Structures are given as C-alpha cells and as structure tokens.
C-alpha cells in the first residue's frame, strides 16, 4: 500500500511526545521525543524488545496510562473525520476523550482475559460498547449486530451467550478484535494481540485483521517484538529502543535492508513466518537501564559497529533514502558496510 502523506491523509500525529515514570529513584524516561505520523487506512507497526517503550507509547496515545506513568511533553494530534480541526488528545478533558474512545479510537490489548469481564456473557459486553454509539438500539438489533461482528472474525453467533472462560484463547482474542470494530473506528491500536496464541492461530488472526482493515478502511498501530510478523501485515515499521524511535521505513525495506544495527539484530532474533528457516543470532547484552542511559547512542554498548562518536553524541532521527534512522554508522545501502 502506498500512501502520500498530506494534510488530507493524516490521521494521527505524534509531535515530541515524551512519557516518564515517576519513581522514588527518579524520573524514568520511558518514551522520549517521539515524532511519527499515522495516515488514514495505514497499518504501521511498532517493534522493539521488552522495555523499549512501545507499549508505553500506545497507552500514552490512548490516554490509558496510569500513575506513575505521565505524559511530560509533546502532542498527540488526532485528525478525526467528524471534527473540523485536529484535537490534541493529551489536552482533552476526560468527558471529551471518552467520546472518542471506542467510537473513533479502539484498543485491542494482548491479554484478552484481562480485558473481557469474566462475569458477563459476550453479548452483554458487546451491547455496552454498541450502546455508546447508539443508545436506542433494541434487543433484536443488538443481537443482529453482535452476530455480524462475531461473524467478521469467524465466530459463530451462538457464542455470544458464552462467558469468556468458555472460549479458547484464540476465540477470546478474536472477540476483542470484533469488539474493537463495534463502533466503526477510524483508528485501532493493537498491543501484541497475537502473543498468547500459537503460530496457527497467530496467522489466522493476522489474516482476519488484514481482511477487516481492507474492508473497513481503518488505520492500525500494531505493536509487537517480532519483525517477521510485521512484514506480513504492516505498510511501515517504526523501531524503538531505549524509549526512542531509531528507524522508520516501509515494512519491506526495514525487514530486507535494515539500516540500524539494532533493527538487524531484532530481525535476526526471530524465525520468519513464511520464508525458509535461517540461523538465529540474537543481540548480545541487555536493554539499557533507563535511569542511567549513556550520553550517546543507547545501543552502542551492544553494537559491534560502534565508533568513538557513538559513546558521546546521541544520533538524531534523520531522513536517509526512503526512511529515517538514528545512527552514526547508518548507510543508505546496508551492504556498503561489508
């Protein structure tokens, strides 16, 4: 999918977004100076190791973070089609924000059992969401709409009468996806939605997300630690490390020709979903301590390509070829390094 970034296609703009955790040991910078644009109808993947900041970024975008996490700077500009001008989600009052959640911005979290109410049947949980958009829906209309939503993700209508614990893990996750579609959102935020399922169900869920996105046209922010998974679904990929974006580009380019050494290491840590098996190498060392980040590049202690400048000067995210990268040793064609 090729998307031209103009004022008419922009859906969400992150401008200098920074999030910190306020702890007794000090302020922990979980996300720092994040700048990213998500366009209408685009699937953008956000990848990185644990503690890279990707899930914190999603909760900041949706204003679902809880103390001690706080947004300490920046904007999240939402260009909804139902408003004449963009709104800054960071500054919205809670009642205004509640009017956007589910109706325009939906969330699919990684643990379905933590999100679905265990003491309510599926039909009651779907009805609660559907009535946000249309409080006058009658029982017959609700059942018809719930059945249609479940059918979209391959679940038989009878399952609306089940409790969450009566469903398999894959069905629970697909129910969450159907719930996210209930009010025809413009943006769906997905935080590792396939983590708790096996590879076969993972593939099925990915295919259903793609099919729904192509049919309904919503944009997706898809967070995962697995780059090979994003190759299957994303238009663009943003790589996070140490709370910062270190590379952005088309999914094909980032996966095939990663420019940042961390991106290459992340790719080589997971087996491809649809390609021949290759040797997995991983990344030496451990993620950085966010309370004691190095003065220069946060990845340099683990990087085999580091130079002296990497230890002292933090690289800024700059355009390179058809993407952006924050690396002193990056080149447009990674093969030039050899």
From TrEMBL:
GO BP terms: peptide transport
SMART domains (alphabetical): AAA (SM00382)
InterPro entries: AAA+_ATPase, ABC_transporter-like_ATP-bd, Oligopep_ABC_C, P-loop_NTPase
Family in the record: Belongs to the ABC transporter superfamily.
Origin species: Microlunatus parietis
Official protein name in the record: Peptide/nickel transport system ATP-binding protein
Sequence ranges assigned to domain ABC transporter in this UniProt record: 14-267
Pfam family name, one: oligo_HPY
Organism domain of life: Bacteria
Recorded GO MF terms: ATP binding; ATP hydrolysis activity
Keywords: ATP-binding, Nucleotide-binding, Transport
